[in-house]
Write a structure and sequence with these properties.
By secondary structure, this protein is α+β, with helices and mostly antiparallel strands. The protein contains seven helices and four strands, in the order βααβααβααβα. Helices cover 40% and strands 20% of the residues. The longest helix is centred in the C-terminal third of the chain and has 11 residues. The relative contact order is 0.25.
């Protein structure tokens, strides 16, 4: 398996509940390298740009309002097969359907308040990483 990079976000619901340390610990335990990390509060416009692919979906307004409601922790993760591995560690979008021991099963409270975000494909990861980090930050 080749080394990949993926974007990971600890969402406002997890940060407001003080879960970032536990989530970061699990990221380290899973063998990911954190290539870049920052704490940030997205503006509504930044959230809209990031989630532009969902602009026509009925949940777009609610999603961007939520993602701009508080601080987030944004990371570039690197590992062999990072995209699939991060998605496995996160679990299903709906915490009620997430596998036992996954971040969303342990800490999520709803489909929206599911604590984490992750890229779903190499093309998505490239866009998402570039959205938040400059090339020099990812060296």
């Amino acid at each position: 398996m080749a080394k990949e990079r993926t974007l990971a976000i600890i969402k406002p619901d997890a940060v407001s509940r003080g879960l970032q340390g536990e989530i970061l610990s699990r990221i380290h335990q899973a063998g990911f390298a954190i290539v870049a990390i920052e704490s940030h509060r997205l503006t509504k416009e930044e959230a809209e740009g990031f989630y532009a692919v969902h602009k026509e979906r009925p949940f777009f307004g609610e999603l961007t309002k939520f993602m701009s409601s508080g601080k987030v922790v944004i990371m570039a993760l690197e590992a062999d097969g990072a995209i699939a591995r991060w998605r496995d560690l996160m679990g299903a979008t709906d915490p009620a359907k997430a596998a036992p021991g996954t971040l969303r099963q342990l800490f999520g409270t709803s489909i929206q308040n599911n604590c984490t975000h992750g890229s779903d494909a190499p093309e998505t990861a490239a866009f998402e990483l570039g959205y938040f980090f400059s090339g020099r930050q990812l060296i």
